[in-house]
Amino acid sequence: MLLLLVQGKLTNLTVEERFAFNDSLRIFTRSIIIQRRVEDLQLGVESYQKKLNLTKLDTYKSNLKRKEAYTAYSNPRGF
Q1: CB of 9 within 8 A of CB of 18?
Q2: Are 23 and 43 in contact (CB under 8 A)?
Q3: Which domain of life is it from (predicted)?
Q4: How far is C-alpha 69 from the chain's CA centre?
Q5: Phi-psi region for residue 53, left (φ > 0), alpha (ψ -120 to 50) or beta?
Q6: Which of 9, 38, 41, 59 could hold 4 in an S-S bridge, CB 3.0 to 4.6 Å?
Q7: Torsion of CA 11, 15, 21, 25, to 10 degrees
Q8: What pLDDT does residue 32 have?
Q9: What distances in angstroms separate CA 31 from CA 16, 17, 40, 65, one per listed residue?
Q10: In this predicted structure, what is the pLDDT of residue 41?
Q11: How many CB atoms lie under 10 A from the CB of residue 53?
């Protein structure tokens, strides 16, 4: 923004339009910076998961045979 003002490229804008343009440019720049930081964080989390070998757990095992429930009591009540 300052570079455009120094170069004289914004002479056709009023002061209010320059302020509005400056605000819009600052908001756009901030959103780009936040987006890149989020992407960096996501990449960091993914690399950390790979480093620790964290994968999706397999909760279903098809090769297990049906087992009887084990209890320590010979005559359990309430079952």
Answers
A1: no
A2: no
A3: Eukaryota
A4: 43
A5: left
A6: 9
A7: 100
A8: 95
A9: 23, 21, 14, 55
A10: 92
A11: 6
